Each structure stands twice: as C-alpha cells, then as structure tokens.
Amino acid sequence: MSEFLQSLQENAAFLGVCLLTFIALFVIAWLAERFLLRQRSGVSKARYISYVAMFSALAAVLMLFEIPLFFAPSFYELDLSELPVLICTFLLGPVAGVVTEFLKVVIKLVLKGTSTAFVGDFANFVVGCALILPASIVYHFRRTRKSALVGMIVGTVILTAFGSLFNAVYLLPRFAALYGMPLDAIIGLGTQVNPAINSVSTLVLFAVVPFNLLKGIVVSLLTFLLYKRIAKLLKHGIQKV
Fold first, then answer.
1. Which pick of 41, 139, 176, 185 has the fewest CB atoms within 10 Å?
2. What DSSP string describes 23-92?
C-alpha cells in the first residue's frame, strides 16, 4: 500500500511539474508578444484558431513517425513534429507556437498513448519549446530572411544546450523512477550502442547532444526551405520572409 501511495505521489508531482512548465512557457511567450515584438500577425481570431488546430494535427501525425538513430539508444528517435510547429510560430507568434506544441503532444497521446510513462512526451514539449520560442522571438522582432536564419540558429543552440542539461538533471532520473527501470539499465542501453557510454554524462554527451543538434538543424533547414511557400499558400496577409 505504501508503494502504491508513493507511486501515486510521484505521478501527481510529475503532473504538477508538467502543468507548471506549460504555464511558465505560455507566460514567457505572451510577455514576448506583448512587450518585445514589433509586429503582430494581423490574422483574424477564427483563422488564428484554425491555423493552430491544423498545424497541431499535422505535427501530431508527424510525431507518430520516428526515425531510429545509430548513435543513440532506442528511446531517442528523431521525429519532424517541430517542423509544423515552427512554421506556425513564424506565422502567428510565440503564443501560437507554445499552444501548438502542447496540443500536438495531447493529440499524439490520444492517438497512440505513451510508451515512456509520459516522460518522453513531456520532454518533446519542453525541448520543442526550447527551439521554437527563441527562434520565433528573434524572427518576429524584425521579419526578414536573415532574422529567421539567426533565430533558428539561436534556437538550435538553446535546444542543444538546454535539452541536454534537462535530460541529465531531470528527465533521465524521472524516467527511471516513473518507468520502473534502474538508471544503470538505461545507461546500459546506451552502452550497447556505443561502448563509450558508461554514465549519465557520457550518455548525454554521445547521444543526447548530437540528437538535439541533429533535430534542430534538420527542422530549421526544412523550415527555411518551406516557410515562404506555405505562407504564400495560406494567403494570410502578413509580412513574409
């Protein structure tokens, strides 16, 4: 009974962290739009909602298709779900990006559920925001092709640094606790892929860092190539890259 109560308490605490994190990121995005950004999207409320819903659904579908990576254990798989989210964020602003990122994860959970005790889904949301928020803030401060490129570079750097640190300090230990797998066993999965992985720090260095860097580069490159075409297709009337 005591183990059940302890498990219930841990899950409740994790849920609280998830909710507080979403609120914090939403507030950061709102403050950025309110006080830092020079331009507004100029999109009607109905179109704003429809775009957020459309990009959330598309991102959720892309989240279902994961690509295994030769240098990382199987629970680190690359998906391109941040691509529609980043495009939506460039179109509508940081708040839309955070909401789209959140809805993407919710829709994915409804469609597929979780295989990581929700830790991987939480990580996807937080680390995704680490890319889209800096990128969109830099871009929306002055909408040019150059600022879009700079914003995505900044976002990729923050994604790589924050995502790696977040994995080491919180996500990996929390995954071990909630999933019921010893941390040494998780490290062992990394050792099977790369013998140099023998601790949390080496797992982060040789698997998490290149994983986050690759994701940021691929998503940024595709966004840079596709954004202008998608913006023209939607004909929303805002200034484009």
1. 185
2. HHHHHHHHHIIIII-S------HHHHHHHHHHHHHHHHHHHT--EE-TTS-TT-EE--THHHHHHHHHHH
What would the pLDDT profile of 18-44 be if each residue is shown by its tens digit? 889 999 999 999 998 888 776 666 678
pLDDT digit string, tens, across residues 116-144: 778 888 999 999 999 999 999 999 888 88
Structure tokens at 186: 């998780």
pTM for the full predicted model: 0.89
What is the residue whose two structure tokens read 């459309």? 54
Given a cut of 50, is residue 237 above it in pLDDT?
no
Q: Which residue from 218, 211, 129 is spatially nearest to 172, judged by alpha carbons?
A: 211
Query: Three-state SS across 144-157?
Result: CHHHHHHHHHHHHH
Q: Are 104 and 48 in contact (CB under 8 A)?
A: no
8 Å CB contact between 29 and 133: yes
